[in-house]
Design brief:
The complex is a heterodimer of chains A (451) and B (89).
Chain A lengths: L2 H16 E2 L8 H11 L6 E5 L4 H12 L3 E5 L5 H10 L2 E6 L11 E5 L2 E5 L11 E5 L8 E6 H14 L7 E4 L6 H14 L2 E4 L6 H10 L4 E4 L1 H10 L6 E6 L6 H8 L4 E9 L6 E6 L13 E2 L4 E5 L7 E6 L6 E4 L13 E9 L5 E5 L4 E4 L2 E4 H9 L4 E8 L5 E7 L7 H9 L10 E5 L7
Parallel strand pairs in A: 1-10, 2-3, 2-4, 3-7, 9-10, 9-11, 11-12, 12-13, 24-25
Antiparallel strand pairs in A: 4-6, 5-6, 7-8, 8-18, 13-14, 14-15, 16-17, 17-19, 19-20, 21-22, 23-24
Chain B lengths: L1 H14 L24 H15 L16 H11 L8
Helix pairs in contact in B: 1-3
Classes of the chains: A alpha/beta (451), B mainly alpha (89).
Chain lengths: 451, 89
Amino acid sequence: MSEAARKIIDSASELDRRMTDFSNSSPNYQQLEKEYSQLALQPGSAVLIFAPNGIAFLFHWIAAIANGYVPCAIAPSTKISLIKELQKSLHFVAIVGPQLDPTLYQAKYFGKIGTFNAVVFDNTKPAYEPNDVLILTTGTSGQRTACVHTVDSLVCNASMTNKALNITANDKQLIVLPMYHTYGLVTQSIGAIISGCGLVIDGPPFNASRFAKLIEKEDISIIAITPTIARDLLKRDIVLPAVRVISIGGDQVSPEEVTRFLSKPFVNELYITYGLTEAGPRVSFLPAHTAPVDKYDTVGIPFDGISTRIENPDVDGVGQLLVKTPSVCRRKVGSTINRQPFTSDGFLETGDLFIKDDAGYLRYVTRNADILFIKGEKLNARSIDAVAQSHPHVEFARTTLNNVNLLVTRLWATDDKILDLEEVRRYMMSFLRLHEVPDNIIQETNAEFHK
Amino acid sequence: MSSSIENHLKDILIKDLYIEHEKNKILPTHSFRNDLGVDSIGFVELKSQVEKQFSIVIHDDDFTPDNFSTISSLTELINSYGKTNGAQG
């Protein structure tokens, strides 16, 4: 077992003294570790954890690692059809979760681990190794893919954030972002575990007034929010209690928004961050409170130890950002992965277009065109197309955002059949999460259409 | 009246939030988060549908994990707004 994994596991027994989640449950870590052991899965077996934010989720995640299994967190709203597909494509040996209905899975065993239900499939040869961690890339690469990280790569990345933001045991973080995404899991949860700081986990739902009250009541010093939440706070002119650090990441923030946020009395240190799951996730950060105004439209400079370059820049210096980081994933897995996103000299291909200025600041030009933001959540339009195209009567699908930010999927039918669009919608709903379901589904009848 | 609201909330969960549970198996005491898998976007949609279908406006201070904990707690909240007669079938 690696030193990083040992550190995470050893910390588990004292986490309930450092963490609060308002769930009224008090999971016993030692008992969970023992119950995972009793599943007797082979080392490297992947375990899908299907649970809401909370200490219980974190304990399950750590207990799986302690037993040499490979945990993978997934949104609790994920549809059963997709989970079944993921079970096959990513080779999950077990699935656990509070709302899991064992009767829906053809499993060889079902029972309980702590208060969560658990199903175990055939204990076949594991696809991974002990110390691996799977992180789904549903928002970026599509629905059926994941990054194979290690506990070490995630701890390494969380350490970079802790160091850059000077997060120590004297701090207390508030988590309101989903812990099945890298920001909540790695940057905040693992970051808190290894720094020794306190951690308060809240929601959903997110509520700005409650957020403000919790910061005050719990004496929070570190918060992380998405640009969507930041814009909501600005729009409502919410005044938060002062915190030492606010970081904003997950999507682009405009220079005007940075300026407006910096003018707020509760902002001391404001960090704009950029990252992607494959990188572990954080790559660069802009300390906006000290940065020159002309850098507000950048995502700052890479963390210490990370190098970047622009691939084949055009005359304006625009090209794909390549990243070399010690926290990079080992590989990507899934049925749609046909090549690994690495250059021959070990740089990660981000798929995002950037300019790098003379001082090394990274300026976002555009993200991968397939990635859309709906209600603050990232999604990959091509994965929605893939779901539509898996319908037996759909030949081709194309999902886009229209001019009023509605998600529209256009369908071309096999042999120009007339589609029952309501039936196609129900079919798509059985795979997609709420924000991924198109607002409009339209059948195109262009017989001249060619893929 | 409360059972009618609970019934209406179950319909919202199934038709608008696409919760994959049989209606007759959803209990008033089921946790939206733990038992029904409602996540952050789901809660926003749930609030929006409750406002629309019960003709009420839920104050930001009431959009809390406590009020949006179970069908029972949300029913109590809707009752407290005293406008249940506006519910649409």
